Amino acid sequence: MRTIEIFDTTLRDGEQSPGVNISTNEKVEIALQLEKLGVTRIEAGFAAASPGDQKSVAEVAKRVKHSTIVSLARAVKDDMDKAYEALRHAQDACLHVFIATSPIHRQYKLRMSKEQVLARAVEAVTYAKKYFAQVQFSAEDAARTEIDFLAEVVEAVIKAGATTVNIPDTVGYMTPYEYGNIFRELRQRVPGIDRIRLSCHCHDDLGMAVANSLAAIEAGATQVEGTINGIGERAGNAALEEVALALETRKDFYQATTKLNLKEIARTSQLVSRLTGMIVPGNKAVVGANAFAHESGIHQDGVLKEASTYEIIRPETVGFKSNKLVLGKHSGRHAFKEKLVELGYHLEQDEIDAAFAAFKELCDKKKEVSDDDILALVDAKMVRGTEMYRLESVQLSYGNISLPTASVRLVRADGTVCEEAACGNGSVDSIYKAIDRATGEEVTLTDYKILSVTHGKDALGEVFVRLQQGDLTVTGRGVSTDVLEASAIAYVRAVNKILERKETMTVAAN
After folding, report:
1. End-to-end CA distance of the chain
2. What is the DSSP pairing of strand 256-257 with strand 223-226?
3. How many beta carbons lie within 10 A of that of residue 367, not counting itself?
4. Inter-axis angle of helices 333-342 and 349-365, nearest 10
5. pLDDT attached to residue 301
6. How far apart are CA 68 and CA 35, in angstroms?
7. Element (H, E) at 362
8. Do the Cβ atoms of 327 and 308 come closer than 8 Å?
9. In this structure, what DSSP letter does residue 105 have?
10. How far is the C-alpha of 480 from the C-alpha of 487, rounded, in Å?
11. Which of 1, 44, 244, 408 would give a disulfide with 57, using CB separation of 3.0 to 4.6 Å?
């Protein structure tokens, strides 16, 4: 039984999803959960992309102890130097260097010949080996590269010291048969390829990322790359949870497994969804809300008689639990703290105190408090980044024959208060116009979503917003039993992110 290593790029390729911007603290939180999941390698970012990215990679490198931390770099010395600076405090570090190899990229993007690309690849790996014991080389758009040239490049970078070679289907163009054949050809043609990790990285443009990844594993790949929930640029990446469950469920066929703690999959999926604002579709394999639901009477009858008639995966396998009432308004601080540990949180005392106070407030509004309620509540209350403004109150005047009017009261970081009122096309619009007046920020609302955390009329409402200001795009999230309050909280938090990013960019420029 082979063990397939997992390379997670949620924090790098996943963050390239349109509209997704993850703060440093959020990246650290996701990285710690990925470590708990059992991910072998965590690509923390592209250190040379910006000062913020370099800082995020450095923070993840300091905090994570049991997974290898990776930074992406172009085959450029300055990129590799910045990656080294970001990774120098990592317990275990790896540089991921890449250059495109396909004819279309060579001609139109790089304007380089085969010989120049080959020389640059070898030069980059040789330079990286001065600083890193582990160096991964990726031939960008390898799937559309001539097999003879690809084999030549792979052989050369292995001789230069690459410890992992990645063969990406960068644009999701391949079929499983074609993609698997690339790995078979390379294993036959390239001397020394059995001494290094052979990695696959698939995009989902034609909906075949997971199938292609599994085909590569069949053909000899020893590492699979992807993201949680399959997020990523364009149509996204291979969903790691789907690859892992396919290997687990079909061990008889693939004769391969991973070292992932599968019971952490649901928690990891939910965390990534909340912090990125990318909602998991109900019909998503493994982690979707309907993944283990049975509507058909025939299916329900079969499952009641024997679960395996229609369930090839048990929900408990990936960490889903039934929503039982375990805590209420009479529950004490100790019981609440134990519940947080059970749900995967390890908070400082001041964070526990803040979460407990919010929990008690929720208990006054809801009769039943589920694990999902607590997860949503704690994630929402753990403020990530500087709070330039905090929502203290919101009041509304609304009637179907009157003009919706909202007034908001915000508290600035220095303790001063600002109040504003505004009219709008509806309640949410009037709230957001009032907040714009209070903060003095001109922003554009590009997305707005409301979700129900649990069921019932007293369910927590979860609101996601996406705001744009110039080239900056950020997301904000709010949770409350009142969706209008949740809407206001989400908007204020998004504005805070914009202000924080602008301050960071100003400091970097100076």
Report:
1. 55
2. unpaired
3. 10
4. 100
5. 61
6. 9
7. helix 349-365
8. no
9. I
10. 9
11. 44
> Hunting for tokens 């209008």 — which residue is that?
484
pLDDT at 380: 65
Contacts of 50 (CB under 8 A, 6+ apart): 508
- C-alpha Rg value of the chain to the nearest Å: 25
Q: Report the relative pairing of strands 2-3 and 256-257 from DSSP bridges.
A: parallel
Describe the chain by its helix, strand, coil percentages, rounded to 5: 45, 20, 30
Beta bridge partners of 95: 71, 135
Residue 212 contacts by C-beta under 8 Å, 6 or more apart in sequence? 169, 174, 175, 176, 179, 180, 200, 202, 238
Biggest CA–CA distance in the chain, Å, is 78
Tokens of 393: 């109150």
Q: For residue 252, with 0-12 CB atoms within 10 Å meaning exposed, 13-18 middle and 19 or more buried, which class applies? A: exposed
As a whole number of angstroms, the distance between CA 291 and CA 241 comes to 13
Tokens representing 503? 């301050």
CA dist 168 and 222 (Å) reads 14
How far apart CA 412 and CA 10 sit, in angstroms, is 33
Summarize pLDDT for 174-195 with one digit per residue, the tens. 999 999 999 999 999 999 999 9
Closest CA relative to residue 470, chosen from 506, 432, 441: 441
Q: How would you label 218-245 residue by residue, b for 16+ Cβ within 10 Å and e otherwise?
A: bbbbbbbbbbbbbbbbeebbbbbbbbbb
- Structure-block tokens of residue 238: 């291979």
Token digits for 265?
A: 């999959």
Residues facing 138 on adjacent strands: 98, 166
For the chain, the average pLDDT equals: 90
Q: What is the dihedral of CA 416, 493, 271, 34, to 10 degrees?
A: -70
Provide the β-strand partners of residue 419.
Answer: 409
Collapse the DSSP code of 389 into the 3-class scheme (helix H, G, I; strand E, B; otherwise coil) and give the result.
Answer: strand
Structure tokens at 231: 């997020």
**What three-state secondary structure class fits 449?**
strand
pLDDT digits (tens, 9 = 90+) for 228-263: 999 999 999 999 999 999 999 999 999 999 999 999
pTM for the full model?
0.84
Angle between helices 51-63 and 24-37 (to 10 degrees): 40
Q: Could you tell me if 286 and 313 are in contact, meaning their C-beta atoms sit under 8 angstroms apart? A: yes
Nearest-angstrom CA–CA distance, 399 and 431: 15
Q: Are 279 and 451 in contact (CB under 8 A)?
A: yes
